[in-house]
Amino acid sequence: MARGNEADAYWSIFGYLVSGLLFWGGVGYFAARFFDKPYLTLIGLLVGITGAIYLIWLRFGRQ
Amino acid sequence: MINLHFSGEGFVPPSTNDFNLPPIFENIAWLTKPVLLVFLSVILVSLFFVISARKAAVVPSKLQFAGESIYAFVRNDLARDVIGHDFMRFVPYLFTLFTFVLTNNIFGIVPFLQFPAMSHVGFPYVLALFSFFVFHYVGIRKQGLGKYLKDIAFMPGVPKAVYILLTPIEIATFFLVRPLTLSLRLFANMFAGHLLLLVFIMGGEYMLHDSHLIMKIFAPFSFTFGIALTFFEFMVQCLQAYIFTLLTALYIAGALADEH
Amino acid sequence: MEGTLNLVGFGLSAIGPAIATGMIFAAYINGVARQPEARSVLQPIAFLGFALAEALALFGLVLAFVL
Asked: Transmembrane segments in this chain: where (chain C) (predicted)?
């Protein structure tokens, strides 16, 4: 069981990071297009990556 | 974005166009080489296991032993170790998935066939879609629709305001990124592997036909490296079939677990 | 031949996270091999380190396409 859980963890971490960047980065991208302020994309990406790392900490980091 | 353009005479490197094969018969548009290979793989896999299991004996023949060891590998190492109790329900699906993907991958290095069907992204998409429906269906059947979705969307032990940040990420992970990465991993590995072999074999052929003597001398090195990479590709192909099945089993196990 | 220079830059920048991931897991395997009962302590640290290194690599990938 332990081996399976560990392999699951690596791909889960990767999946969380990708989806955090995709979702909040996408929101930021369209906000930047809509309001015509390019820096909103970067803010969206940073929010997404923060959320993803927080989620990873909640799931795998705390004992 | 800075775009680069190089142009020159000589060697044309293999590109994505090498994967768009023409139809075998002029008037049947859908019957291309990958489709034919998929049909061939279905026939081969069924024939092999029907023949190996037909004369099942206590003292197995060589063929029966081969068939049974593949089955035992999927049942014990993939299904039982990962899913745990009540794993027998999923063995037929996992076994079919593993043998089908493995056979199609290995077609990439079998002489004269030499095309991995999974390097066309449509095939892995469909396989990942099957896995997607299987693990969500199993989870919903086990826990009920409401509880299953609530377990996915809301991580326990977080202040309520943070859910605005986290819930979209969780939902995107489970319903979009998981099937997408499952299929793209298989596709990208097969695509890149086939392209790599094409580069070395076609490059070697070009060097052999070049007029300079020094190019002719170095051509065998390109071929040798191509052959070495073929063995490397064999390893990658087996590994990718294993990983595809392992991740499906892991997702099923995750959907069956009470808390995720 | 055509392409974009962004992807070359991403390829170069991916070297850093690759080395980082390798070092994290080398240290993790070393620690667990020397002291197997420390696994439960080391595992979350290794996962978090992996997540941070991986985040930088993916961030670079996204920026290579966005910029």
From this structure: 12-33, 45-66
